[in-house]
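[agent] plan:
  1. take the single chain provided in the ticket
  2. run structure prediction with default settings
  3. attach structure tokens to the ticket
  4. add a short note for the reviewer (M.T.)
[agent] executing step 1
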Amino acid sequence: MQPIQQRRRIGEGALHLILFLCGSVSILTTLGIVAVLIFETIEFFREVPLVSFLFDTQWTPLFADKHFGIWPLIAGTALTSMIAIGVAVPIGLLSAIYLSEYASSGVRRSIKPTLEVLAGVPTVVYGYFALLFVTPLLQRFIPGMSGFNALSAGIVMGIMIIPMISSLSEDAMYAVPNSLREAAYALGASKLQVSLRVVVPAAFSGIAASFLLGVSRAVGETMIVAIAAGQLPQLTANPLVPVETMTAYIVQVSLGDTPTGTLEYRTIFAVGMMLFLSTLGLNLFSQWLRERYREQYQ
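[agent] step 2 finished; step 3 output follows
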């Protein structure tokens, strides 16, 4: 009996080690990425003053007259992300309310996986959809729109984010206890009043977290903006003209035309650090908001 127990302990120890190593892969990968970003960013700021990076309004590191102001890239990223959130939040929230409060269980089981199929479409397909379909369609109504613009990229990016916001919000609302709904119905509330005044406020933490995760996803999106938004870094709030986002610039420099180790090459790490800090801040704020306003039900 003892040899069997010993072999079992050895097997459990080996399994524990394997699981520990698998869990450590993601941590070590993250640490490696952060270490590379920090090292290359420090090398970049040895040649470029931090003041120029933060306060200059031009971004032309690949031109003879070099400027390293990050704000045009931040403006392009913020513009496309705001358009995407403006599309995704109302559609995603309304679809989540329908699935949680109005749809039958059979309809919910069929519609929700269908909606989530959108999340599996490759982003490069979304990018060419924005460039070859959405932009020509919008140009029929807005003749002055450029072929590359922030509007079509933002709209399609919002369509891509809808499944994330809808699924996470619906899960949060579905977790609200039925006792709250029944109490509201007992007081004479209609179904719409129960949905908007009881269920949505009770699931606020999960809904808000889904919105912030959607923003983070929009900020970090690459292929859609690289294909449809253009590669013209300019400090503008006009969605009808070409813009360049932080991710699109990283793609532009990473194509292989810029020699490795040069100042121009190191700009992608400085931009990548800014992008990393932005998404990290959004994710941390999302987690704090979820914990701060989470409702505990018995």
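[agent] step 4 note for reviewer: The chain has two domains: 2-46, 71-292.
[agent] ticket updated
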